Amino acid sequence: MCKIESMSIRVYADTSVFGGVFDAGIDQASREFFTQVEEGRFELVTSNVVADELVSAPERVQLQYENFLPSAHLVVPSSQALALQQSYLQAGIVTAKWAADALHVALAAVNHCKIIVSWNFKHIVHFDKIPLYNGVNLINGYDTLSINTPAEVIAYED
After folding, report:
1. Rg for the chain (alpha carbons), in Å?
2. Which CATH entry fits the domain spanning 9-153: 3.30.360.10, 3.30.70.270, 3.40.50.1010, 3.40.50.300?
């Protein structure tokens, strides 16, 4: 049987994934995600929204983000992303207090990512919210997203 070679998967990583490298319990999966980015399994997409959220983060988290910037696709909020974010808010998926979380999802959708990875179980990686985000995406002409934790997307050796 021949092994199927795959192209890299376009993945948006939110702020929690960069910080997750240093958080006990999720550090191993976060580190492995970034290892697989370096190996070419994932095409990393991130944003200046992440950079803004990391301003008050520990220096080691900021450095983790900065180390991946040269190889990442850095996206900025476009009018399309902001409109999609507003659609999420109007649909009641999250409140305006958590608009930045909705913007992460919108940036992933508008920038043609297949997956968004996050450790944010309250506003992003939640079984109630995922179908709502994807429903709004479809209504607005965008593809659905796979919304997962890094532990769910990394490849494991057999």
Report:
1. 15
2. 3.40.50.1010
HSE-CB at 156 with a 13 A cutoff on CA atoms is 7
Amino acid at 119: W
Sheet with 9-13, strands from edge to edge, namely 73-75, 42-47, 9-13, 115-117, 146-148
The span from the CA of 107 to the CA of 71, in Å, is 18
| Side-chain-facing half-sphere of 3: CA atoms under 13 Å | 2
Q: What is the mean pLDDT of each run of 10 residues along the chain (158 residues)?
A: 66 97 96 96 97 96 96 97 98 97 98 98 96 98 98 86
Q: Could you write out the DSSP letters of every residue in 40-68?
A: TSEEEEEEHHHHHHTTTS-HHHHHHHHHH
d(C-alpha 52, C-alpha 48), whole Å: 6
The residue to which tokens 């070679």 are assigned? 5
Identify whether the C-beta of residue 150 lies closer than 8 Å to the C-beta of residue 117.
yes
Predicted TM-score of the model (pTM): 0.93
